[in-house]
Amino acid sequence: MSQRDEHADGFARVPDGFERLWTPHRMAYIEADKPEDSDDEACPFCAAPKKDDEVGLIVHRGEHCYAVMNLFPYNPGHLLICPYRHVPRYLDLTDAETQEFTQLTKDGIRALEAAAAPLGYNIGMNQGEVAGAGVAAHLHQHIVPRWGGDSNFLPIIAQTKALPQLLEDARSRLADAWPGK
């Protein structure tokens, strides 16, 4: 029997009270090629603003930044705030971009409250591939609306995410509820 065939119970370990759920299917995403820092041609956040709002999933366009639906949302209404400029780090933003980036984050929360009444939010950005950024070359901030009981084990055990609303419907509702419209 090779070491690979040994049962996990035979390995030395210190019990810590946690059960482990292994998700090896995630390695395909982790190891996938990501756009290079200078490769704005392959960048989805550079491509989206060049499309019609519905096709590009754009919710709102500002002068320096825009709000777009996440193509692979954690929850309905999962928004991303992006600068138009292809920059990887928050520190790379100009003062004007930073101000609008922050304002669009606040406006996105207001639109979500008007359109979907979430009970909470996860807001943040992952800078760098090792920090979890799926597209590390282009800065983006997540606004994930949360409701009680909105997550379960389906993504882990069935590679399935249950979303009760179509992406197009969520985009339309948020665009209609965007402050100042």
The CATH architecture would be 2-Layer Sandwich
Query: Which structural class do the helices and strands define?
Result: alpha+beta
Mean pLDDT: 84
Instruction: Kindly give the count of domains.
Output: 1
Strand order, biggest sheet?
1-2-3-5-4
Radius of gyration: 19 Å
Secondary structure tally: strands: 5
Distance between the ends: 67 Å
> For the report, how would you describe the main beta sheet?
5 strands, antiparallel
Give, in order, the helices and strands: HHHEEEHEEHH
Q: Write down the CATH class.
A: Alpha Beta
The CATH topology assignment is HIT family, subunit A
Shape estimate: globular
Show unreliable segments.
none
Question: Helical element count?
Answer: 6
Helicity, in percent?
25-40%
Please describe the structure with a list of short key phrases separated by commas or semicolons.
181 residues, alpha+beta, HIT family, subunit A, 5 strands, globular
